[in-house]
Design a protein that fits this description.
The chain is built from eight helices and eight strands, in the order E-E-H-E-E-E-E-E-H-H-E-H-H-H-H-H. With about 240 residues, it is an alpha/beta fold. The strands form two sheets. It has a six-stranded mixed β-sheet. It has a two-stranded antiparallel sheet with strand order 5-6. The longest helix is centred in the middle third of the chain and has 18 residues.
């Protein structure tokens, strides 16, 4: 695996321990070009960075050494972990994102990403379920890597979770099931919602969940299909 170097100054000076790294967080750059993305990731005023950037050609660029904390996750939560910069490696994929013309990720990008993730998984003993999107850990602020990101394909390489469909009928009132749905999401690791009251946050999190696990059916509304997926995943 060939890695290019284009180092950013945007990282903590403190060196973290090998065992502290427990997650890999996947992002898209959300900017109009690779050049602009790298400029921002290296600009001290932006105060953002990542460990690796993968461009549209599939080239892997190291921007912050793994032993340092890069500034990619921001305010975030997953299970009992908060502010995941400290315990994660951030990977940016060059993509214009939803604001500038969201693109499908290239085959070369995904191929390089899988190779890199497998290496990181072995090196740090990262659990399959700890490969997450920025939207998973910051669902009220972020939508990347979005519905065009192939989580199902990555899961076939044991990178990230996916569900196994079971022969199970789901009947009954969705109002009753809504509470159970959010309990399922809480068990998976999602936070920032209330299962006891209707709110904008809840609708946003339903949409984020659908972007990942039902990318052809993103409505932001809880239906039986979305509920069933949460049931399949919780086991």
């Amino acid at each position: 695996m060939r890695i290019l170097y284009n180092l950013s100054p945007n990282h903590s000076k403190k060196v973290r321990k090998h065992k502290d790294i427990k997650f890999v967080i996947i992002h898209y750059t959300g900017m109009q070009s690779e050049i602009e993305s790298i400029k921002r990731l290296k600009n001290p005023k932006s105060k953002v960075s990542c460990h690796f950037l993968i461009n549209r050609k599939g080239e892997i660029i190291l921007m912050v050494k793994e032993k340092f904390i890069a500034w990619h996750a921001g305010k975030s939560r997953w299970k009992n972990f908060k502010n995941l910069n400290y315990c994660s490696i951030g990977i940016e994929l060059v993509n214009k994102g939803h604001q500038y013309g969201y693109q499908y990720f290239t085959q070369k990008q995904i191929k390089s990403l899988i190779v890199l993730c497998k290496k990181l998984k072995r090196k740090y003993k990262i659990k399959s379920g700890n490969f997450l999107g920025h939207s998973d850990i910051s669902p009220l602020r972020k939508v990347d890597p979005g519905e065009k990101f192939p989580w199902k394909k990555l899961s076939s390489h044991k990178i990230g979770n996916w569900y196994k469909q079971k022969r199970k009928s789901v009947k009954g009132d969705l109002k009753i099931k809504k509470s159970k749905f959010f309990k399922n999401l809480h068990k998976l690791g999602y936070r920032y919602f209330s299962s006891h009251q209707k709110s904008y946050a809840n609708a946003k999190i339903i949409k984020i969940f659908q972007q990942r696990y039902s990318p052809n059916h993103v409505t932001g509304k809880l239906d039986l299909k979305t509920f069933r997926i949460s049931e399949f995943l919780k086991h």
